[in-house]
Amino acid sequence: MCGIVGLVSHTPVNQALYDALTELQHRGQDAAGIITTDGDKLYLRKDNGLVRDVFHSDEHMIRLRGNVGIGHVRYPTAGCDSSAEAQPFYTNAPFGISLAHNGNLTNVEELKRELFLDDRRHLNTDSDSEVLLNVFAHELMQRKALRLTPEDIFEAVAQVHRRCHGAYAAVVLINGYGVVGFRDPFGIRPLVYGRYEGPAGPEYMIASESVALSSLGFERLSDVAPGEAVYLTVEGPLHRRQCASNPVYSPCIFEHVYLARPDSIMDDVYVYKARLRMGIKLAEKILREWSGHDIDVVIPIPDTSRVAAAEMAVRLGVVYREGFIKNRYIGRTFIMPGQAQRRKSVRQKLNPVDLEFKDKNVLLVDDSIVRGNTSREIIQMAREAGARKVYFASAAPPVRYPNVYGIDMPTTGELVAHGRSIEQLEKILGADRLIYQDLPDLIEAVQGGNRKLTRFDCSVFNGEYVTQDVSRDYLNQLELFRSDAAREARRRANQTVIELHNAVSR
Hints:
By secondary structure, this protein is α+β, with helices and mostly antiparallel strands. It is built from 17 helices and 22 strands. It has a seven-stranded antiparallel sheet with strand order 3-2-4-1-10-9-11. It has a six-stranded antiparallel sheet with strand order 5-6-7-8-12-13. The protein has a five-stranded parallel sheet with strand order 17-16-20-21-22, sandwiched between helices. Helix 10 (306-316) links the parallel strand 16 and strand 17. Helix 4 packs across helix 5, helix 9 (271-289) packs antiparallel against helix 14 (439-447) and helix 16 (472-482) packs across helix 17. The longest helix has 22 residues, at 484-505.
C-alpha cells in the first residue's frame, strides 16, 4: 500500500506535489519522495519519514524546480525498510526515467534474472518497484526512437503488461516528455486522473485517490482503466490507450474496507457510500440472526469504521456514541512493524470515555480484524472502562489469507482468523459475541456504487488470487521473508552493520 502522484503543469509543481502527498499520507507513513524536472535537469528529494518530515525546510522545496514531477509515499511490503528504497526510483537510460509504484509484482525473481542476463540492466535495491522501472526503461529503449511518440510509450507499457505479473499502479516521469500513468490488466491497485483549467492552459494530475485531485482543485476525469496508460504532456493534449490484450476489471475490495479515504471516489464508487452500505448489511445480518439482541450502544473504533457504525446504530435502533478518543499523532497501528509496537500503540492511540461504557452492553465496530492483537486490546479496554458485555463487529469478513498485491498481510501465521472458527475467535479476542460481514454482502455493498464492477480481488477473504499465478511455494517464501520475526532479524542485522561501521570509523 503506497500513494503515488504525477503532475504536469505550466507553473512550478513542488508545492502541489507536496500537498497531494499529504492528502495521500494515509497510504504510507514510512517514506516520502518527490522528483521534478526543469528542462533537461532532474531534482530529487526522498527519505524515510512523513511528508512533513522529509520536506521540512524551505531549501528542500526550493530545490525541487520545474513544472513536471512525480511523488510517492511509501509503506513497505517488499524489499527492506532502508531509505535507499524510498521512491521515486531513477535510471538514466534511456532519456532519464523516474518511477513511483503502488502494488507488488508476483514474478519479481524471474524478472530480476531476465534484467540481469538478457536485458543487461543493473539493480541497486531489492525493491520490485526498481524492477518495474527497469522493465519499462528496457522496453522503451527497444523502440530505438530519437524522439518518443505516444505510440512508442504505449508499446512499452504493453510489453510491461506482457512481462510483469501482479499488482501495479505506476507514474513514470520521462525527462523532456512528460508523465505516464498505467495500471495492471486487473486494475488491482487504484489510479485516477484529472484536469485543472489554469490561466496558461490545462494542467493534469494522476494520483492513487481522487482526494489528491479535489483538494488541489482538479476535476476528476476518470479512473485509469485496467491495462490502460495515460500520457500527460504540457505541450499537447492528454493521450490514453488500452495497452493490455485481455484486461479483467478486478479491483482490490480491501481498498473500500480500510485503505482508502472515505471522501475518495474509486472505480466510480464513493468510498463513503460503500462503507455506509457495509453498515446496513451488517445491521441486517444482526437483525436476521440475533433479533433479540441486547445491545445498548454502538461505538466505532476510529476512524475507518465510523461511517459503517453510525448506519448500523440507525438500523438497529440503538444509540451511537463516540466511546474512544483518538490521539491523531500516533500512526495507523495496522501498518506498524512488530506486534509489541502495535499493542503498545493501541493504548497510546485510543483512550476510552468511561461513561459511555459503564454498565452497558457495547457493540464495538471496526473495519476489519487482521492480526487480532489490536482488537483484543480494545475489547479489554472496554471492559476496564466498565462495560457489562462487549460485542465486536467487523465490517469485513474474516481475513484468513495473505495479501500478495501490496498490502502487508503476508503470513497466515499472523492472521488470527486463519484456520479458526468464530467460536474460537471469540475466546481469543475476549468478545462476548463476534459478528463478521458476509463476503457476498461486502461485494454487494461496493458493487452498489458501480454495477459495471462484476469482479473484485477478495483474496484476503477467500484465498482466490485474481492473477492466478500465486503458488503455495510463493506464499511460503513470503512468509519466510515478511513475517515480523524475519523483519526483526533483518533489523538487528542492519543495526549490527551500522555499529561495526561506526566502530571502524572511530
